[in-house]
Amino acid sequence: MAPLRKRRTVADAKGSQENEGEIQNTLNFDMGPESEAADNGNDSAAGEKSEAENEHGTEENKASEGENTEGSRVVVKRRRIVKKSEDGEPNEQNDKPAGTASTSAPSAAPAPAPSAEHSSAPEEHQDHSSYRKPGQIPANRQAKFTRKPNQNQTKRTYPVKSYPVPDAEMAENAVAATAAAQENSGSTAAEDNANKPRLKINDLTVKSMPELRELAMQYGFTADDLAPMKKQDLIFVILKAHTEHGGIIFASGALEILPDGYGFLRSPQNSYLPGPDDIYISPSQIRLFNLKTGDTVYGQTRSPKEGERFFALLRIETVNFDEPRIAQTRVPFENLTPLYPNEKLRLETVSTEVSTRIVDLFAPIGKGQRLLIVAPPKAGKTILMQKIANAITTNNPEVYLIVLLIDERPEEVTEMERAIKGEVISSTFDEQATRHVQVAEMVLEKAKRLVEHKRDVVILLDSITRLARAYNQTVQTSGKVLSGGVDSNALFKPKRFFGAARNVEEGGSLTIISTALIETGSRMDEVIFEEFKGTGNSEIDLDRKLAERRLFPAINIKKSGTRKEELLLTENELQKIWILRKVLNPMEDVDITELILDRMKKSKTNEAFLASMNAGTAGME
User: Which parts of 423-547 are beta strand (E)?
Assistant: First the structure.
């Protein structure tokens, strides 16, 4: 049977062409040049089949009966195509007639024809050209495999692996529109919420436990309900009850972005420790306002919905104390230009504060300074840092002050919180080294974000030695251990922390005043001090001999000083300080400090002290 079906009669071929023309005229279908080529192929096939017209008559009748079924398939398929074109979405791949597919296939024996008993189409609709040959793709599946030119390649007008300009413009317009919508909704919400009771989370965090319990009882809680709760849990239930009573909540904190893309606002009162009162920020808000870890965000929050655990940020009011749009165009900290400090932080306050007056003359501190206070135990470094912090907040109110206490005693943390007006972040010695590292990195990121907004930040770190110890415990071991058990990779991040201090040409500055411990009996502390000894551009040395003689501040004036001090002092002050150092150089360290303290106490200001040098230099000698 197979050889007999290889040939077709001329009559059948002509009938097939007539059917094609009839279908085309009936459906008003444009078959295109490919269809014409297929018709030519059918003519040639008909010529070949005419040679065996008399030889295989009986078999041809069976084949023609089977071809009726295939012809009916063509009719149905064409009707479906026309119906799709009437809907407005023609299928270009299925618009080809069935005969077109057969012309592109390789020459091979056609498939067996269907039996006559399954054919129900009339004889005039027979079509032999739609037979599928072995290896040929069926017509109803050609659309999946037909290759089209890549539209992205044909329409691309920008370099490969770069962002298209229209998309960038659309993104900018979307950001601007979203920001404008948020501003409009914010103004409307502010008007609607004007009469609603407001509550700030930061006001609750500074309250004591008895005050929080008393406030919670006003919302209907009993003493038995509040007894097992910790402070953060107590704040959470107060906030939730406040929203249930129709109030609105505002919160601020330092943003910490987690690896999954979302973030939380950590409270500085909790030293950025995760807690139930943290505020959730969605990834869309982070991308919209170009937020980073360390950003100080303030905005309105909402209570958690069903299935949620945290309060969520509803609307952002400020980012780093500026409008949110400023954060979208800021320059990254790493791209800012560092300079030597050229603006002095004046520390002189009252005549009785001799410590800050001595520092102001012999080791002046500028905005962007990297100061290292070298201190043995019990030399008065904590008291000196407290006085420096109070002097900065008094004379330089524009400076944002952060005190970072690493591996310190809890009582010293409480004393520092009560002694200064700035922000105190601590991680006491009873916490893990990973906690020390997390707190330090959070403080550094917050300071960098403020500098990006052209603000002056001062960090008082106590101490860089203990921070290096914490990194030595948490860093992945490299196999290279220095003297004292210090890993070679452990000092990289502490140096990066200390090296972040700089004066920025574009505006803003980051000043870091850190202590370094010596004479502790630990070889590790000595190695750490030697590594940091040349990294600072200012140094204050505290002498144990002076502290043992109860001379405070126990500052070794010979060893203390600042690089490029001519940028911070006036010409008159600079000349007199150099003369004074020249006169005091032959004297002993203890005698120098005693003499300076005595003369300082007799003068009310540093200006008066320097003015008295014209007549008193000979007396000093």
Answer: 423-428, 456-462, 502-504, 509-517, 538-541
**Residue 374's beta-bridge partner residues?**
516, 541
Contact 555, 359 (CB under 8 A): yes
- Count of H helices and E strands in the chain? 25, 15
Closest CA to 14 of 150, 148, 127: 127
With beta carbons less than 8 A apart as the criterion, state whether 241 and 220 touch: yes
Could you give the residue ranges of the DSSP H alpha helices within 28-90? 32-49, 57-87
Please list, in sequence order, all residues whose beta carbon lies within 8 angstroms of the beta carbon of residue 620, skipping any fewer than 6 positions away.
Answer: 580, 583, 584, 595, 599
- Given a contact cutoff of 8 angstroms between Cβ atoms, the answer to whether 278 and 310 are in contact is yes
Helix axes 613-620, 571-584, angle to 10 degrees: 10
Taken as a whole, the chain contains a residue count of 621
Q: Are 59 and 113 in contact (CB under 8 A)?
A: no
Nearest C-alpha neighbor of 371 from the set 597, 545, 574, 560: 560
The position carrying tokens 């084949």 is: 63
Q: What is d(CA 458, CA 509) in angstroms, rounded to the nearest whole number?
A: 8
- What is the reported pLDDT for 141? 57
Contact 342, 313 (CB under 8 A): no
**DSSP secondary structure code for residue 542 in this structure:** B
The 10s digit of each residue's pLDDT in 101-157 is: 444 444 444 444 444 444 444 444 455 555 555 656 565 555 544 455 544 444 444
Q: Provide the 10 A C-beta neighbour count for residue 66.
A: 21
pLDDT in tens, 495-547: 999 999 999 998 899 999 999 999 888 899 899 998 898 889 999 999 999 99
Q: What is the mean pLDDT of the chain?
A: 76
Where b means 16+ CB within 10 Å and e means fewer, 557-594 reads bbebbbeebebbbeeebeebbeebeebbeebebbebbe
Residue 470 near residue 486 (C-beta atoms within 8 A): no
Record the tokens describing residue 188, joined without a space: 């409307």
Beta strand 279-281 with 311-319: parallel, antiparallel or unpaired?
Answer: parallel
Residue 115 φ then ψ, to 5°: -70, 160
What is residue 325's three-state secondary structure?
helix
Identity at 584, one-letter amino acid code? L
Average pLDDT of the residues in 467-481: 87
Which phi and psi angles does 561 have, rounded to 5°?
Answer: 175, 175
Q: Is this structure's pTM higher than 0.70?
A: no
**Cis amide prior to 553 (ω within 30 degrees):** yes
